[in-house]
Structure formats: structure tokens, C-alpha cells
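Record type: monomer structure entry
Structure origin: computed from sequence
Chain ID: A
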Amino acid sequence: MPVQKLILLLLILATACAPAGVTPVPSIVPYSTQTSVVPETLPASPLPSTAAPPTSSSSPAVAPTPLQTVAFLEAMVTADLLSCRYGPGPEYLYLYALRRDAKIKLIGRTDGNNWVWVDGRNKCWVNARYIDIHGEQSLLPVVYPEPARLPRSPYYSPTVVLSAVRSGDSVTVKWLEVPLRAGDEEDETMLHYIVEVWRCENGQLFFDPLATNESSITFVDQPGCEAPSHGRVFIQEKHGFAGPAEIPWP
């Protein structure tokens, strides 16, 4: 048998022996049918927080505002005739009088009693009980004993404090007597010495100008004030005040 016929016969027999309905599977998958690669999903980035930052439950400490002062206050006299004096008290030398309804300007006060300093050609002191003040008296600056000094006597030297003795809440001060020459009194009611004391009573510091013709005086001074008590002695005569002689506080 020729070779060509033998090969053909073998092919026919191989085809006839293959199982029915089976199609040979190619070894290469076309590109269009390849499984696509899905990238790994990364965790989402956290969103920035919109919550307000925590705040302290306590408010910051606020420093107290210091008390402000005013340059002056307007006032009007309510007494029929009001004495205006060289010092802040009823026993100091008299300067002049103010009539009812007089309009005045106040430029200072003491730190401890009810007297205020009146502006003018000759500045002087009045009791605030007898004037109507347009404003708060405590806003006036404290001007005594500086810069509102007492006029000095050109004719007398200061006295000398001899002793200051405490007995409980009572303090007694003695000084050297200095006689006045005849005619040096302002009038027959003028008191010879002015003892200025800043003394403590019931936890409050008071300013008291104590006047006397004696060479000693006794007053109350208690413990319990923040500021220290102190005092001084003036000789008073019609031309002014000699001193002061400082009190060595007991």
C-alpha cells in the first residue's frame, strides 16, 4: 500500500475513536478574557476632627482694677456760712467763709476723715457734710499731709515729744510745753497744739486732728488695721504751724 494512503487511513481511525462532543481546549487564554487585577483597598484616612478643643472649666483670674481718681469734683455749699480752714479739721486756723449756694471745686481729701480740699487763689479745707458734691468723694486724690502742707510758722521751733505710752488700747502722748507770746493767738478760742493721729479703731484707720491747750493728750488706738498707726504734734499760732514733732508710736 502506498505511504500516503496509509497515513490517511490512520487519521480517519484516530478521529473515529475520539469521544463525542469534546472540543480540544487551547493552552493560551485570549487577553480579553483574562481576570482583571483589583488593587488592595487601603483603609480610609481619618477625617480631621471638627470637635472644639477642650476648655478649662475655671475662668482665668482677673486682677482687680485699681480705684481711679478724678482731677476735681464740683460742689455747692449748703450751710449759711461755711468756714474754710488751713487744715482738715474744725480747730485749724480760719482762712475765710463760703456762703450758701457758693459753687466750689474740690481737688483733694484726707484718708480718714470727712474734710475736702477746695481749689482757689487760697486753697483751704471744708467739712464735706455741709456741701453737695456732684460725684463720689472717695474718687478725689488723697492730698494730706502731702502735697497740701500746713503753712509754717516763722516764729516758733517745733516742740519735742517727751513720751508716748500705751495702756491697752489707750495711748498717752506728752511733749515739751512751748508758751506763745502775747498776741500770737488767732482769737481767745484758739487751741495751742494740734495733735494729728492716724489711729486704728474697729479695724479702720481714722485721721483725727486733736486740739488742746495742754501739753499731753490721750486717745484710743486698737490693733487690727492693715496700715500702721502714727502721729505728730504741731504748735499752732496765728501766723502758721511749728513742727511737726513726730510721735514714736508705742
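Annotation 1: Helices lie at 3-17.
Annotation 2: The two ends are 159 Å apart (CA to CA).
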